[in-house]
Amino acid sequence: MNWRRRRVLASVAGVCAVSGCLGSASDSDRPLPETPDGTWSQSGYDARNTWAADVTVPARGTPAWSGGSGLIAPLVADGTVYTVDDVLTALDARTGERQWQTDLGIEESPNSATQPAVADGYLVLASDGRLRSFDTADGSERWERTITGSPAQPITVAPDQQRGFTFFRRPEDGEPHAELVAFGLDTGETEWTSPLRAPGAPPAVFDDRLYVAGWDGPETQVLRCLRLDDGKLVWEREIGDRKTPPIGAETGVLVGDGTDIAIYNHTDGERLTSIGVSLGQIRALAIDDGTAFVLAESGLSAVSVPDGSEQWALSEEESSDYAQADGLAVGREAVVAPVFPDSDISPSIAAFDRTDATPQWYYTIDDGWSPTIVSPPVIADGAVFAMSNAKNGVTALGDLPPRTEETE
Fold it and tell me: For residue 204, how far is the Cα from the chain centroid?
């Protein structure tokens, strides 16, 4: 399916006729119809990095409210949205009202902290020289541990919520040395560490294994399998051109490798197969129920795993910059992706039917100079949470009529 400019504009017009919407970043400050249910508690949704949540994407992507601050991708859990910059902010997921805010005592910079994780009523955050845990009820600090170095990559929490994992950069003699730190979530105490020259993505957990991608030399990228309990190396494989975090799936470990989806055996790291993607370099990868959803530089597609048959594809031949952020979100019925559908249209958060890619809605970032989507979307039941440079913090999208309809 080719998605040329006329088709994009026709699709947008059709969606507007049905739902009354091209969302705009200036239409906000309303509550969502209901409190969003479901949890997006860490980067990649879960410890496997599947980017697929068992939630319903709203039928419309109309802006409801904006709040919080920063450029770090938000989290949502138990009806609360969390944003991070030099402060940690908790917002009511339905109304956007601030519940509490904690000063982190760090520089206001995207590099001073990384995306946190929520586990068992606490939020765990890595910042320069520190690893900290906060109570999600009121933002009070539970514990703090000193960690030498600066944080790199989001925090991953194991499914049993007993152990967390995060990278810290520790330059030595000019080399970009880093260590993966495994710590207990109850105390923050370090349980084990594992070196990696330069981490390239948050790790993935599958059963009793941890999968880590990064660099092992100036020109060598590797995928490593470590034991979850002590960090011992199980196997290591050199990979060509890693584009995505590893994903732990039943069929194996999936990695976007250039224009291929590479699948590695859990047991010994043997490369089982490669699935070619026709839409250019892979920017983001998600998997759910045997289907891989691929956001590439010039299109969005769905392929069966592991046989590689293409289920559908949307491409934009007139633009080489289709993908807008390195991440997407998959719900029960829809895929939500940051896209740039045409050179004459501003970047958008868009929802597509996951079975046949029918466009559902677009939220267009059209405020400010050079609008940009700055992080992957996060979804919960009945809501999508997006971040752009047009607004400071997060914008909640939901099934609401445009404000012009409400006032008629």
Answer: 13
